[in-house]
Specification:
Blueprint lengths: L5 E5 L8 E5 L6 E7 L2 E6 L9 E5 L2 E3 L3
Antiparallel strand pairs: 1-4, 2-5, 3-4, 5-6
Length: 66
């Protein structure tokens, strides 16, 4: 069974705002599934065997990952 790469984004403590997600400067399409409670799951399909950089911004400010 094959599963697509995914990342959990937890903005539950961030308050109201605009969440934006970009993978490799927008070159890799992604899908966002809202889980509720300020959390969402981002899934993407790599088309090349390269490093994928996920950029998350909240209200225009970059959010650092763990």
């Amino acid at each position: 069974m094959f599963s697509l790469p995914s990342r959990l984004v937890d903005a539950s403590k961030a308050g109201e705002g605009q969440l934006e997600i970009s993978i490799n400067d927008g070159d890799v399409p992604n899908a966002v599934q809202v889980l509720g409670g300020g959390k969402c799951l981002v899934t993407y399909t790599p088309e090349q065997a390269i490093t994928h950089e996920i950029e998350v911004t909240f209200n225009g400010e970059q959010v650092k990952g763990k």
